[in-house]
TrEMBL record:
CDD domains the record matches: PTS_IIB_glc (cd00212)
Main subcellular location: membrane
Record's GO cellular component terms: plasma membrane
Protein name per Swiss-Prot or TrEMBL: PTS system, trehalose-specific IIC component
Transmembrane feature ranges: 109-129, 159-179, 188-207, 227-246, 258-284, 304-322, 342-363, 402-422, 442-462
Lineage of source species: Bacteria, Bacillati, Bacillota, Clostridia, Eubacteriales
One Pfam match: PTS_EIIC
Length: 472
C-alpha cells in the first residue's frame, strides 16, 4: 500500500501525464522534472496537493518541493507512473536543453563550485576563529590576545593554519579535480594538474604579488616563469577545462589497447606546459581585472548604490540560478585583497528573506497547515538555504519577497558603507557572522539586525496594504 497514493496520482495528472515527463529525479527535498511541454503543468493545482510545499522552475527543471519524505514520494511516483527515474546528472543535462547560453554557463559554474563549498565554509570559520584568538586584544585589559598569554591557544592558532592553508592556498587542486569530475574525465589527472599549479618548487603567488624575483625554467630557446597560482580561481579553471578537452578528444582517437598510456601522457604534459606558459598569466590578469572592478564598485564614492542594487537584486538572482557566479568572484576577491565585501551582503539577503517568512508565521499564526512549511523554511533560511522560504512562502504571496529585498538592500548599504569584510564564504545566514573579520563583527551585527527588523515590519505593513489584500 502506497503512503502517498492520492498525491502521486494528482501530481502525475497535473504535471501533464507520463508522456510529458522527459526525465525525473530528486534531491534532498525536491522532485526534479524536465518536462517536454512545461505549459501543460497546472502549477496552481500542483501547489494545492497536500504534501507539496511549493514549486518553481530553475536551470531548465520544474521542481516540486516535497520535504524530507521526498525519497519515499519519488519511489512511489516512478512506480505508479511506470517511468524510469534518472539521476540528478541526467536531469541537469536534459534541463540544459531548455536554457539559454548564460543559464547554461551559470549551471556549469554551479556544478564546479558546489562540491567545494563545504571546505570553503570550514576554511572561513577557521580563519574567523584564528582572528578572534590571535588578533583581538581580549585579555589583560584589552592589551593582549589569547595567543599571547596562553601556549595552548597559541598552539591551536598555529595548528588551525594547517587546515586553512590546505583549503585556500591549494584551492586550484579542488577546482581542477571538480572540473575533471564534472566532465567525467580522469579525476586523478585533475588533481595532479592542480598540484602542478601550487607546487612548492614554484614561487608562491603571494610572493609574486609582493614583488619577489621570479625564477624560471630555461629551455635554451625559451624561458618560462616558475610562478605558483595559490588561491587563484581562473587560471585553475582554464587549465582544468583544457585538460578535460584534450583527454576527451584523445579518447575518441586513440585505440583502447594503448589508451591507458597515451591518453594521460598527451593530455597532462601539454596542459601543464600551456598552463604555465599561457593560461596561468592570462587567467591571473582576467581574475585581477574582475576583482579590481568589483572591489572598486564596493569601495568607490558610489559604493552605497552598488550595495543597494546588489542587496535588492540578489534574491531574484537566486531564482534564476545566476547567484552561483558570485562564488568565483568572492574567491578572487579573497585572493587579491585578503577578504570579500561581497559575501556579507549575500548572508544579509538570506537573513532578510527568512525574516519575511517569520512575519508570515506571525500574521498566519492560526494557520497550522502553513506552519508546516513556514517554520522549517525560516530555520533553513537563517542557516543559509533560502529556496524553501522563497519558493514555499515568499513568492506565493509576493509581498514578503519584496519586503525581504528592501530589507536586504538597506542592510547591504550599511554593510558596505561601514567596510564590512569577510575572511571567506561562510554559512550564509545568522552564523555568517563567524566568517566576518573581527574588527567588523559589531558593524555586521547591526546590519544583521536591520535585515531581521525591516523585512519583518515591512511584511506586516504590506499585508495591510490594499495592493496586497488578495495575497496571491
Amino acid at each position: 500500500m502506497f503512503k502517498f497514493s492520492k498525491e502521486v496520482q494528482q501530481l502525475l495528472e497535473y504535471i501533464g501525464g507520463r508522456e510529458n515527463i522527459s526525465t525525473v529525479s530528486h534531491c534532498a527535498t525536491r522532485m526534479r522534472f524536465v518536462l517536454r511541454d512545461p505549459q501543460k503543468a497546472d502549477i496552481e493545482k500542483i501547489k494545492g496537493i497536500r504534501v507539496v510545499k511549493g514549486s518553481f522552475t530553475q536551470a531548465g527543471q520544474f521542481q516540486v518541493i516535497i520535504g524530507n519524505e521526498v525519497a519515499t514520494f519519488y519511489n512511489e511516483f516512478v512506480q505508479y507512473a511506470k517511468i524510469e527515474g534518472g539521476t540528478k546528472e541526467d536531469t541537469k543535462s536534459a534541463g540544459r536543453q531548455n536554457m539559454n547560453f548564460l543559464q547554461r554557463l551559470t549551471s556549469h559554474l554551479a556544478e564546479i563550485f558546489a562540491p567545494l563549498i563545504p571546505a570553503i565554509i570550514v576554511g572561513g570559520l577557521i580563519l574567523g576563529f584564528r582572528n578572534i584568538i590571535g588578533d583581538i586584544k581580549l585579555m589583560n585589559g584589552g592589551t593582549k590576545s589569547l595567543t599571547e598569554i596562553s601556549q595552548f591557544w597559541s598552539g591551536v592558532y598555529d595548528f588551525l593554519w594547517l587546515i586553512g592553508e590546505a583549503i585556500f592556498h591549494f584551492l586550484p587542486v579542488g577546482i581542477t579535480w571538480s572540473i575533471s569530475k564534472k566532465m567525467r574525465t580522469t579525476q586523478i589527472l585533475g588533481i595532479v594538474l592542480g598540484l602542478t599549479l601550487v607546487s612548492p618548487q614554484l614561487l608562491n603567488a603571494y610572493a609574486v604579488a609582493g614583488g619577489a624575483e621570479i625564477p624560471y625554467w630555461d629551455f635554451g630557446f625559451a624561458k618560462v616563469q616558475m610562478i605558483g597560482y595559490q588561491a587563484q580561481v581562473i587560471p585553475a579553471m582554464l587549465a582544468g577545462f583544457v585538460l578535460a578537452f584534450l583527454e576527451l578528444k584523445l579518447r575518441e582517437r586513440v585505440p583502447s589497447a594503448i589508451s591507458m598510456i597515451v591518453v594521460p601522457f598527451f593530455a597532462l604534459i601539454p596542459t601543464v606546459l600551456i598552463a604555465h606558459i599561457l593560461l596561468g598569466p592570462i587567467g591571473w590578469e582576467i581574475g585581477s581585472w574582475i576583482s579590481k572592478v568589483v572591489y572598486a564598485g564596493l569601495t568607490s564614492t558610489f559604493k552605497w548604490l552598488f550595495a543597494a542594487v546588489f542587496g535588492f537584486a540578489y534574491a531574484p538572482l537566486v531564482i534564476t540560478g545566476l547567484h552561483h557566479m558570485t562564488n568565483a568572484i568572492d574567491l578572487q576577491l579573497m585572493s587579491e585583497f585578503g577578504g570579500t565585501h561581497l559575501w556579507p551582503m549575500i548572508a544579509l539577503s538570506n537573513i532578510a528573506q527568512g525574516s519575511a517568512v517569520l512575519a508570515i508565521i506571525y500574521l498566519h499564526r492560526k494557520n497550522e497547515e502553513e506552519k508546516q512549511v513556514s517554520i522549517p523554511a525560516t530555520i533553513s533560511c537563517y542557516l543559509g538555504v533560502t529556496e524553501p522560504a522563497m519558493f514555499g512562502i515568499n513568492l506565493k504571496y509576493m509581498y514578503p519577497f519584496l519586503a525581504g529585498m528592501i530589507g536586504s538592500s538597506i542592510a547591504a548599504v550599511i554593510s558596505v558603507g561601514t567596510g564590512v569584510m569577510a575572511n571567506s564564504i561562510g554559512v550564509g545566514g545568522l552564523p555568517g557572522i563567524l566568517s566576518i573579520q573581527p574588527q567588523y563583527m559589531f558593524k555586521f551585527a547591526i546590519a544583521m539586525l536591520v535585515a531581521v527588523i525591516i523585512p519583518f515590519l515591512m511584511t506586516i505593513f504590506f499585508s495591510k496594504s490594499n495592493k496586497f489584500k488578495k495575497e496571491k
